[in-house]
Amino acid sequence: MKIRSAKVIVTCPGRNLVTLKIETDQGVYGIGDATLNGREKSVVSYLEDHIIPTLIGKDPQRIEDIWQYLYRGAYWRRGPIGMTAIAAVDVALWDIKAKLAGMPLYQLLGGKSREKVMVYSHATGLDIESCLEEVRKHVALGYKAVRVQCGIPGIPTTYGVSKEAGKPYEPADSALPAEHVWSSEKYLNHVPELFAAVRNEFGEDLHILHDVHHRLTPIQAARLGKEVEKFHLFWLEDCTPVENQSSYELIRKHTTTPLAIGEVFNSLSDCQELIQKQLIDYIRATITHAGGITNVRRIADFASIYHVKTGFHGATDLSPICMGAALHFDTWVPNFGIQEHMPHTKETDLVFPHAYEFKDGFFTPGDVPGHGVDIDEELAAKYPYKPAYLPVNRLEDGTLWNW
Ligand code: CS2
Ligand code: MG
After folding, report:
1. What is the mean pLDDT of residues 166-171?
2. Which residue of 214, 215, 263 sits with most ligand 1 atoms within 8 Å of its CB, as the best mutation to test the pocket?
3. Protein residues with CB under 6 Å of any ligand 1 atom
4. What digits encode the pLDDT tens for the residues 71-110?
5. Mind spelling out the 3-state secondary structure of the chain?
6. Ligand nearest to the CA of 171
7. What residues are labeled active site?
Protein backbone atom coordinates (compact mmCIF):
# COMPACT_ATOMS: atom_id res chain seq x y z
CA MET A 1 0.00 0.00 0.00
CA LYS A 2 1.33 3.43 -0.92
CA ILE A 3 0.56 7.11 -0.40
CA ARG A 4 -0.54 8.26 -3.87
CA SER A 5 -1.06 11.96 -3.21
CA ALA A 6 -1.49 14.54 -0.51
CA LYS A 7 -2.88 18.06 -0.56
CA VAL A 8 -3.53 20.98 1.72
CA ILE A 9 -6.97 22.61 1.93
CA VAL A 10 -7.37 26.06 3.50
CA THR A 11 -10.85 27.27 4.38
CA CYS A 12 -12.36 30.01 6.54
CA PRO A 13 -15.94 29.09 7.42
CA GLY A 14 -15.69 31.23 10.56
CA ARG A 15 -11.94 31.16 11.11
CA ASN A 16 -8.99 29.91 9.09
CA LEU A 17 -8.63 26.14 9.19
CA VAL A 18 -5.94 24.13 7.43
CA THR A 19 -6.46 20.48 6.51
CA LEU A 20 -4.09 17.88 5.10
CA LYS A 21 -5.69 15.13 3.02
CA ILE A 22 -3.62 12.01 2.29
CA GLU A 23 -4.83 9.62 -0.42
CA THR A 24 -3.64 6.05 -0.86
CA ASP A 25 -3.38 3.94 -3.99
CA GLN A 26 -6.25 1.84 -2.63
CA GLY A 27 -8.86 4.58 -2.44
CA VAL A 28 -8.77 5.01 1.35
CA TYR A 29 -7.89 8.54 2.48
CA GLY A 30 -7.26 10.23 5.79
CA ILE A 31 -7.39 13.84 6.97
CA GLY A 32 -5.50 15.75 9.64
CA ASP A 33 -5.80 19.26 11.10
CA ALA A 34 -2.84 21.58 10.37
CA THR A 35 -4.22 24.82 11.79
CA LEU A 36 -1.84 27.16 13.63
CA ASN A 37 -3.76 30.31 14.49
CA GLY A 38 -2.22 33.42 12.89
CA ARG A 39 0.59 31.41 11.26
CA GLU A 40 -1.57 29.21 9.03
CA LYS A 41 0.35 29.83 5.82
CA SER A 42 3.68 28.84 7.35
CA VAL A 43 2.31 25.37 8.03
CA VAL A 44 0.83 25.21 4.51
CA SER A 45 4.30 25.90 3.10
CA TYR A 46 5.98 23.43 5.48
CA LEU A 47 3.61 20.73 4.28
CA GLU A 48 3.55 21.57 0.58
CA ASP A 49 7.20 22.44 0.12
CA HIS A 50 8.92 20.12 2.57
CA ILE A 51 6.73 17.23 3.65
CA ILE A 52 4.36 16.17 0.88
CA PRO A 53 7.11 15.43 -1.66
CA THR A 54 8.71 13.01 0.83
CA LEU A 55 5.43 11.20 1.57
CA ILE A 56 4.57 10.09 -1.93
CA GLY A 57 5.20 6.35 -2.34
CA LYS A 58 5.56 5.66 1.41
CA ASP A 59 3.49 2.95 3.12
CA PRO A 60 0.80 4.88 5.08
CA GLN A 61 0.54 2.05 7.60
CA ARG A 62 4.02 2.83 8.98
CA ILE A 63 2.83 5.65 11.21
CA GLU A 64 5.66 5.49 13.73
CA ASP A 65 8.38 5.28 11.11
CA ILE A 66 6.93 8.22 9.18
CA TRP A 67 6.69 10.21 12.41
CA GLN A 68 10.37 9.52 13.23
CA TYR A 69 11.37 10.29 9.65
CA LEU A 70 9.66 13.69 9.71
CA TYR A 71 10.76 14.57 13.26
CA ARG A 72 14.36 13.38 13.22
CA GLY A 73 14.87 13.69 9.47
CA ALA A 74 14.14 17.43 9.46
CA TYR A 75 17.20 18.01 11.67
CA TRP A 76 15.29 21.05 13.08
CA ARG A 77 13.27 19.49 15.86
CA ARG A 78 10.23 20.74 17.76
CA GLY A 79 8.61 24.16 17.32
CA PRO A 80 4.96 24.91 16.56
CA ILE A 81 5.14 25.05 12.76
CA GLY A 82 6.99 21.79 12.22
CA MET A 83 5.08 19.93 14.95
CA THR A 84 1.71 21.09 13.59
CA ALA A 85 2.68 19.86 10.14
CA ILE A 86 3.83 16.50 11.56
CA ALA A 87 0.60 16.26 13.57
CA ALA A 88 -1.50 16.70 10.43
CA VAL A 89 0.33 13.81 8.74
CA ASP A 90 0.08 11.66 11.86
CA VAL A 91 -3.67 12.19 12.36
CA ALA A 92 -4.37 11.55 8.67
CA LEU A 93 -2.40 8.28 8.90
CA TRP A 94 -4.24 7.16 12.07
CA ASP A 95 -7.47 7.96 10.24
CA ILE A 96 -6.37 5.74 7.35
CA LYS A 97 -5.25 2.92 9.64
CA ALA A 98 -8.52 2.93 11.58
CA LYS A 99 -10.52 2.99 8.35
CA LEU A 100 -8.48 0.03 7.06
CA ALA A 101 -9.16 -1.82 10.29
CA GLY A 102 -12.86 -0.93 10.05
CA MET A 103 -12.66 0.45 13.60
CA PRO A 104 -13.28 3.74 15.34
CA LEU A 105 -9.91 5.19 16.29
CA TYR A 106 -10.39 4.70 20.06
CA GLN A 107 -10.45 0.93 19.47
CA LEU A 108 -7.01 1.01 17.82
CA LEU A 109 -5.63 3.04 20.71
CA GLY A 110 -6.71 0.38 23.21
CA GLY A 111 -10.48 0.68 23.52
CA LYS A 112 -12.75 2.66 25.79
CA SER A 113 -11.60 3.68 29.26
CA ARG A 114 -14.89 5.57 29.74
CA GLU A 115 -18.32 5.84 28.20
CA LYS A 116 -18.24 9.58 27.56
CA VAL A 117 -15.94 12.56 27.66
CA MET A 118 -16.59 15.52 29.98
CA VAL A 119 -16.04 18.87 28.31
CA TYR A 120 -15.94 22.44 29.55
CA SER A 121 -17.47 25.34 27.72
CA HIS A 122 -16.75 29.06 27.75
CA ALA A 123 -18.84 31.69 29.51
CA THR A 124 -17.63 35.23 29.01
CA GLY A 125 -19.14 38.58 29.93
CA LEU A 126 -18.15 42.22 29.88
CA ASP A 127 -18.88 42.23 33.62
CA ILE A 128 -19.69 39.69 36.34
CA GLU A 129 -23.47 39.84 35.86
CA SER A 130 -23.28 39.23 32.10
CA CYS A 131 -20.84 36.37 32.68
CA LEU A 132 -23.30 34.81 35.16
CA GLU A 133 -26.00 35.09 32.50
CA GLU A 134 -23.77 33.10 30.13
CA VAL A 135 -23.03 30.49 32.81
CA ARG A 136 -26.80 30.04 33.27
CA LYS A 137 -27.16 29.35 29.52
CA HIS A 138 -24.36 26.77 29.57
CA VAL A 139 -25.69 25.03 32.65
CA ALA A 140 -29.11 24.87 30.96
CA LEU A 141 -27.43 23.19 27.97
CA GLY A 142 -26.15 20.50 30.34
CA TYR A 143 -22.48 21.48 30.74
CA LYS A 144 -20.99 20.27 34.01
CA ALA A 145 -17.90 22.43 33.70
CA VAL A 146 -17.66 26.04 32.59
CA ARG A 147 -14.68 28.32 32.07
CA VAL A 148 -15.52 31.80 33.32
CA GLN A 149 -13.92 35.04 32.12
CA CYS A 150 -15.13 38.60 32.54
CA GLY A 151 -14.10 42.16 31.75
CA ILE A 152 -12.23 44.14 34.37
CA PRO A 153 -13.35 47.60 35.51
CA GLY A 154 -10.96 50.16 34.02
CA ILE A 155 -9.77 47.83 31.25
CA PRO A 156 -12.05 48.22 28.24
CA THR A 157 -11.31 44.95 26.46
CA THR A 158 -9.41 41.97 27.64
CA TYR A 159 -8.35 38.84 25.83
CA GLY A 160 -10.56 35.85 26.55
CA VAL A 161 -13.78 37.88 26.75
CA SER A 162 -16.13 38.40 23.79
CA LYS A 163 -16.44 41.96 22.56
CA GLU A 164 -20.22 42.04 22.70
CA ALA A 165 -22.62 40.62 25.25
CA GLY A 166 -24.12 37.30 24.15
CA LYS A 167 -21.70 36.92 21.20
CA PRO A 168 -19.31 33.96 21.21
CA TYR A 169 -15.74 34.81 22.00
CA GLU A 170 -13.28 34.26 19.14
CA PRO A 171 -9.56 34.11 19.87
CA ALA A 172 -8.46 35.96 16.69
CA ASP A 173 -10.65 38.45 14.97
CA SER A 174 -8.75 41.32 13.38
CA ALA A 175 -6.77 41.57 10.15
CA LEU A 176 -3.83 42.98 12.11
CA PRO A 177 -3.18 42.25 15.80
CA ALA A 178 -5.42 44.44 17.98
CA GLU A 179 -3.74 46.16 20.94
CA HIS A 180 -5.26 45.53 24.37
CA VAL A 181 -4.45 47.25 27.63
CA TRP A 182 -3.64 45.05 30.60
CA SER A 183 -3.27 45.68 34.31
CA SER A 184 -2.37 42.73 36.51
CA GLU A 185 -3.28 44.73 39.62
CA LYS A 186 -6.80 45.56 38.42
CA TYR A 187 -7.31 41.98 37.31
CA LEU A 188 -6.04 40.49 40.59
CA ASN A 189 -8.29 42.76 42.60
CA HIS A 190 -11.37 41.92 40.53
CA VAL A 191 -11.32 38.30 39.40
CA PRO A 192 -11.88 36.61 42.82
CA GLU A 193 -15.29 38.35 42.91
CA LEU A 194 -16.26 36.53 39.72
CA PHE A 195 -15.54 33.11 41.24
CA ALA A 196 -17.38 34.10 44.44
CA ALA A 197 -20.45 35.09 42.40
CA VAL A 198 -20.41 31.85 40.39
CA ARG A 199 -20.07 29.67 43.50
CA ASN A 200 -22.74 31.68 45.25
CA GLU A 201 -25.27 31.08 42.48
CA PHE A 202 -24.35 27.58 41.27
CA GLY A 203 -23.09 25.91 44.44
CA GLU A 204 -20.21 23.44 44.66
CA ASP A 205 -21.30 20.98 41.96
CA LEU A 206 -20.43 23.05 38.91
CA HIS A 207 -16.78 22.75 37.84
CA ILE A 208 -15.31 26.24 37.42
CA LEU A 209 -12.26 26.83 35.24
CA HIS A 210 -10.38 30.04 34.48
CA ASP A 211 -7.69 31.05 31.97
CA VAL A 212 -5.15 33.75 32.87
CA HIS A 213 -3.67 33.64 29.34
CA HIS A 214 -0.07 33.88 30.58
CA ARG A 215 -0.47 37.41 31.93
CA LEU A 216 0.87 37.17 35.51
CA THR A 217 4.30 36.85 37.03
CA PRO A 218 4.94 33.75 39.18
CA ILE A 219 4.47 35.61 42.47
CA GLN A 220 1.24 37.21 41.22
CA ALA A 221 0.01 33.79 40.10
CA ALA A 222 0.86 32.41 43.54
CA ARG A 223 -1.19 35.19 45.13
CA LEU A 224 -4.18 34.51 42.89
CA GLY A 225 -4.08 30.76 43.40
CA LYS A 226 -3.92 31.25 47.18
CA GLU A 227 -6.70 33.82 47.30
CA VAL A 228 -9.16 31.74 45.29
CA GLU A 229 -8.52 28.38 46.96
CA LYS A 230 -11.84 28.57 48.77
CA PHE A 231 -13.72 28.64 45.45
CA HIS A 232 -12.32 25.21 44.50
CA LEU A 233 -11.49 25.87 40.87
CA PHE A 234 -11.21 22.81 38.66
CA TRP A 235 -8.13 24.57 37.31
CA LEU A 236 -6.31 27.85 36.88
CA GLU A 237 -4.86 27.87 33.37
CA ASP A 238 -1.71 29.43 31.93
CA CYS A 239 -1.13 31.69 34.89
CA THR A 240 2.36 32.61 33.66
CA PRO A 241 4.38 32.10 30.50
CA VAL A 242 6.55 29.07 31.08
CA GLU A 243 9.76 29.19 29.11
CA ASN A 244 11.31 28.79 32.57
CA GLN A 245 9.57 25.64 33.78
CA SER A 246 10.94 25.81 37.32
CA SER A 247 9.09 29.12 37.87
CA TYR A 248 6.10 26.93 38.68
CA GLU A 249 7.87 25.74 41.83
CA LEU A 250 7.24 29.14 43.34
CA ILE A 251 3.53 29.10 42.43
CA ARG A 252 3.10 25.56 43.69
CA LYS A 253 4.69 26.38 47.05
CA HIS A 254 1.91 28.84 47.79
CA THR A 255 -1.29 27.29 46.55
CA THR A 256 -3.37 24.12 46.28
CA THR A 257 -5.43 25.55 43.39
CA PRO A 258 -4.97 23.01 40.56
CA LEU A 259 -2.82 24.29 37.70
CA ALA A 260 -3.18 23.61 33.97
CA ILE A 261 -0.79 24.58 31.22
CA GLY A 262 0.37 23.51 27.79
CA GLU A 263 -1.72 24.77 24.87
CA VAL A 264 1.42 26.31 23.36
CA PHE A 265 3.60 23.23 23.95
CA ASN A 266 4.61 20.96 21.11
CA SER A 267 6.84 18.36 22.70
CA LEU A 268 7.46 16.41 25.85
CA SER A 269 10.59 18.48 26.46
CA ASP A 270 8.38 21.58 26.80
CA CYS A 271 6.71 20.11 29.88
CA GLN A 272 9.04 17.39 31.11
CA GLU A 273 10.19 19.29 34.20
CA LEU A 274 6.68 20.59 34.97
CA ILE A 275 5.36 17.05 34.92
CA GLN A 276 8.25 15.26 36.57
CA LYS A 277 8.34 17.68 39.51
CA GLN A 278 4.54 17.51 39.79
CA LEU A 279 4.26 21.26 39.34
CA ILE A 280 1.02 21.01 37.36
CA ASP A 281 -2.16 18.97 37.53
CA TYR A 282 -3.35 19.07 33.91
CA ILE A 283 -1.43 19.05 30.64
CA ARG A 284 -3.13 20.93 27.80
CA ALA A 285 -0.84 20.07 24.88
CA THR A 286 -3.12 19.05 22.08
CA ILE A 287 -2.95 16.72 19.12
CA THR A 288 -2.73 19.39 16.39
CA HIS A 289 0.09 21.42 17.92
CA ALA A 290 2.06 18.69 19.65
CA GLY A 291 2.98 16.27 16.89
CA GLY A 292 -0.23 14.27 16.58
CA ILE A 293 -1.63 11.26 18.36
CA THR A 294 1.72 9.46 18.27
CA ASN A 295 3.42 12.22 20.24
CA VAL A 296 0.59 13.23 22.56
CA ARG A 297 0.29 9.61 23.59
CA ARG A 298 3.92 9.70 24.75
CA ILE A 299 3.24 12.92 26.71
CA ALA A 300 0.08 11.49 28.33
CA ASP A 301 1.79 8.23 29.31
CA PHE A 302 4.68 10.13 30.84
CA ALA A 303 2.25 12.43 32.68
CA SER A 304 0.34 9.46 34.08
CA ILE A 305 3.39 8.41 36.13
CA TYR A 306 3.25 11.77 37.93
CA HIS A 307 -0.52 11.97 38.50
CA VAL A 308 -0.94 14.61 35.80
CA LYS A 309 -4.14 14.36 33.78
CA THR A 310 -4.99 15.52 30.27
CA GLY A 311 -7.09 18.60 29.57
CA PHE A 312 -6.65 19.18 25.87
CA HIS A 313 -6.93 22.55 24.21
CA GLY A 314 -10.10 22.67 22.09
CA ALA A 315 -10.59 26.28 20.99
CA THR A 316 -12.28 27.13 17.68
CA ASP A 317 -8.89 27.67 16.08
CA LEU A 318 -8.50 23.90 16.11
CA SER A 319 -10.63 22.30 13.43
CA PRO A 320 -13.37 19.71 13.96
CA ILE A 321 -10.75 17.15 12.85
CA CYS A 322 -8.74 17.95 15.96
CA MET A 323 -11.89 17.73 18.09
CA GLY A 324 -12.80 14.35 16.57
CA ALA A 325 -9.31 12.91 17.04
CA ALA A 326 -9.13 14.34 20.58
CA LEU A 327 -12.45 12.75 21.55
CA HIS A 328 -11.19 9.32 20.44
CA PHE A 329 -7.99 9.91 22.40
CA ASP A 330 -9.94 11.13 25.45
CA THR A 331 -12.16 8.04 25.28
CA TRP A 332 -9.07 5.86 25.55
CA VAL A 333 -6.47 7.75 27.62
CA PRO A 334 -6.39 6.34 31.17
CA ASN A 335 -5.37 9.66 32.79
CA PHE A 336 -8.10 11.75 31.19
CA GLY A 337 -9.07 14.93 33.02
CA ILE A 338 -11.36 17.07 30.86
CA GLN A 339 -11.64 18.31 27.26
CA GLU A 340 -12.14 21.92 26.16
CA HIS A 341 -15.06 22.59 23.85
CA MET A 342 -15.86 25.79 21.97
CA PRO A 343 -18.64 25.32 19.42
CA HIS A 344 -17.60 25.90 15.80
CA THR A 345 -19.79 28.00 13.52
CA LYS A 346 -22.64 26.22 11.70
CA GLU A 347 -20.73 26.77 8.45
CA THR A 348 -17.67 25.03 9.93
CA ASP A 349 -19.73 22.05 11.05
CA LEU A 350 -21.10 21.74 7.50
CA VAL A 351 -17.63 21.88 5.92
CA PHE A 352 -16.46 19.19 8.36
CA PRO A 353 -19.26 16.61 8.77
CA HIS A 354 -18.54 14.61 11.92
CA ALA A 355 -19.64 11.63 13.94
CA TYR A 356 -19.03 13.12 17.40
CA GLU A 357 -22.04 14.14 19.46
CA PHE A 358 -22.78 16.28 22.49
CA LYS A 359 -25.26 15.24 25.14
CA ASP A 360 -25.76 16.72 28.58
CA GLY A 361 -22.23 17.99 29.17
CA PHE A 362 -20.41 15.05 27.59
CA PHE A 363 -19.22 14.09 24.11
CA THR A 364 -18.96 10.72 22.45
CA PRO A 365 -16.67 10.26 19.43
CA GLY A 366 -19.05 8.09 17.38
CA ASP A 367 -18.38 4.62 16.03
CA VAL A 368 -17.60 5.10 12.36
CA PRO A 369 -14.22 3.77 11.18
CA GLY A 370 -11.42 6.34 11.47
CA HIS A 371 -11.63 9.51 13.54
CA GLY A 372 -15.10 10.17 12.22
CA VAL A 373 -14.52 13.62 10.67
CA ASP A 374 -14.61 14.35 6.94
CA ILE A 375 -14.22 17.43 4.77
CA ASP A 376 -16.60 18.71 2.08
CA GLU A 377 -14.03 20.15 -0.31
CA GLU A 378 -16.53 21.93 -2.53
CA LEU A 379 -18.05 23.74 0.39
CA ALA A 380 -14.59 24.45 1.87
CA ALA A 381 -13.63 26.23 -1.38
CA LYS A 382 -16.44 28.75 -0.83
CA TYR A 383 -14.69 30.20 2.23
CA PRO A 384 -11.28 31.61 1.23
CA TYR A 385 -8.48 32.44 3.70
CA LYS A 386 -8.84 35.74 5.58
CA PRO A 387 -5.98 37.13 7.67
CA ALA A 388 -6.94 37.10 11.38
CA TYR A 389 -4.64 37.64 14.32
CA LEU A 390 -4.64 37.34 18.08
CA PRO A 391 -4.35 40.64 19.98
CA VAL A 392 -1.25 41.83 21.82
CA ASN A 393 -1.28 43.23 25.35
CA ARG A 394 0.34 46.40 26.59
CA LEU A 395 0.55 47.59 30.16
CA GLU A 396 -1.04 50.96 30.88
CA ASP A 397 2.35 52.65 30.28
CA GLY A 398 2.66 51.02 26.83
CA THR A 399 5.04 48.15 27.68
CA LEU A 400 4.37 45.04 25.61
CA TRP A 401 3.28 42.37 28.07
CA ASN A 402 3.63 38.62 28.32
CA TRP A 403 1.01 36.15 27.43
C1 CS2 B 1 -7.43 29.84 24.81
C2 CS2 B 1 -7.42 29.95 23.33
O3 CS2 B 1 -8.86 28.01 24.58
C4 CS2 B 1 -8.04 28.55 25.29
O5 CS2 B 1 -7.73 28.16 26.38
O6 CS2 B 1 -6.26 30.11 25.46
O7 CS2 B 1 -8.38 30.89 23.01
C8 CS2 B 1 -6.10 30.36 22.70
O9 CS2 B 1 -5.76 31.64 23.11
C10 CS2 B 1 -6.15 30.28 21.23
O11 CS2 B 1 -6.53 29.00 20.86
C12 CS2 B 1 -4.82 30.66 20.62
O13 CS2 B 1 -4.87 30.48 19.27
MG1 MG C 1 -5.98 28.89 27.17
Report:
1. 74
2. 263
3. 37, 171, 211, 213, 263, 313, 315, 317, 340, 390
4. 999 999 999 999 999 999 999 999 999 999 999 999 999 9
5. CCEEEEEEEEECCCCCEEEEEEEECCCCEEEEECCCCCCHHHHHHHHHHHHHHHHCCCCCCCHHHHHHHHHHHCCCCCCHHHHHHHHHHHHHHHHHHHHHHCCEHHHHHCCCCCCCEEEEEEEEECCHHHHHHHHHHHHHCCCCEEEEEECECCECCCCCCCCCCCCCCCCCCECCCCEEEECHHHHHHHHHHHHHHHHHHHCCCCEEEEECCCCCCHHHHHHHHHHCHHHCCCEEECCCCCCCCCHHHHHHHHCCCCEEECCCCCCHHHCHHHHHCCCCCEECCCCCCCCHHHHHHHHHHHHHHCCCEEEECCCCCCCHHHHHHHHHHHHHCCCEEEEECCCCCHHHHHHCCECCEEECCEEECCCCCECCECCCHHHHCCCCCCCCECCEEEECCCCECCC
6. 1
7. 159, 213
